[in-house]
């Protein structure tokens, strides 16, 4: 589907499909490397997971006096409601629900959604990237050697700035002196490590002999 050069005068980056009727457009735009990027539009709707809202508790503003009182009364409430013959699962359900209720009443919270972003992409990089796209469009439309030279110079500056900023981000991440705790407790460090993982972590769904997902009632 790619009909424009993606590196100098050669088409090295391809997009192959066996359903060309589903393709709306295929274009080439400037990239950070010496290869241009291939951007396609099609009539197939991609399935994307929606960000899951997270409840974040502000423990610094928690009412610890109320929290302690409610937790102390929790054992009395259990004794009044249950006896020694109560199944352990029922007791656990009671404990879990009450602890969550106490937490919601005593600790202020807010809801936040997870957004994907690269933390080292600065305003300067975004500004240079916009200049690079404008220079590319002008060079492509005029095919003027001076315009192409200007585009290549801006692209080189953008690539170098992105590289330097990324390395500085990693250096700051590894030598974070704003936190007195050891590096093992650095949340920013472990957040970055988690973002670089490519495998899903967790227990896969249990399936029966027929391959159907097994749900325990």
Task: Walk me through this protein's architecture.
A hairpin with a 7-residue loop joins β1 and β2. This protein is elongated. With 217 residues, the chain is mainly alpha-helical. The strands form two sheets. It has a two-stranded antiparallel sheet with strand order 1-2.
Number of helices: 5
Q: Describe the global form.
A: elongated
Q: Kindly, what is the distance between the CA atoms of the first and last residues, rounded to a whole number of angstroms?
A: 51 Å
Biggest sheet architecture:
2 strands, antiparallel
Strand-residue fraction? 5-15%
- What structural class is derived from the secondary structure elements? mainly alpha
Element-by-element helix/strand order:
EEEHHEHHH
Any idea how many domains? 3
Mean pLDDT: 83
Secondary structure layout:
Elements: E1 23-29, E2 37-42, E3 54-57, H1 64-81, H2 88-106, E4 109-112, H3 123-142, H4 145-174, H5 187-195
Antiparallel strand pairs: 1-2, 3-4
Would you kindly provide a brief summary of this structure?
This protein is mainly α and 217 residues long. 44% of the residues lie in helices and 10% in strands.
Entry keywords:
217 residues, mainly alpha, 3 domains, two-stranded antiparallel ribbon, two-stranded antiparallel sheet, 5 helices, 44% helix, elongated
């Amino acid at each position: 589907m790619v009909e424009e050069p993606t590196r100098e005068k050669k088409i090295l980056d391809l997009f192959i499909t066996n359903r060309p009727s589903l393709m709306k457009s295929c274009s080439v735009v400037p990239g950070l490397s010496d290869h241009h990027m291939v951007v396609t539009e099609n009539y197939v709707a991609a399935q994307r997971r929606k960000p899951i809202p997270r409840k974040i508790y502000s423990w610094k503003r928690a009412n610890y006096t109320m929290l302690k009182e409610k937790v102390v009364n929790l054992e009395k409430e259990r004794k009044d409601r249950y006896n020694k013959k109560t199944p352990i699962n029922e007791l656990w359900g009671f404990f879990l629900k009450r602890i969550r209720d106490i937490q919601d009443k005593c600790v202020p919270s807010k809801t936040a959604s997870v957004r994907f972003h690269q933390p080292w992409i600065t305003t300067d990089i975004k500004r240079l990237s916009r200049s690079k796209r404008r220079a590319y469009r002008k060079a492509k439309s005029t095919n003027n050697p001076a315009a192409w030279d200007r585009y290549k110079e801006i692209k080189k500056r953008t690539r170098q700035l992105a590289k330097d900023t990324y390395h500085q981000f990693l250096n700051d991440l590894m030598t974070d002196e704003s936190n007195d705790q050891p590096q093992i407790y650095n949340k920013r460090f472990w957040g970055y490590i988690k973002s670089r993982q490519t495998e899903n972590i967790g227990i896969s769904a249990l399936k029966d002999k027929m391959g159907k997902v097994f749900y325990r009632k």
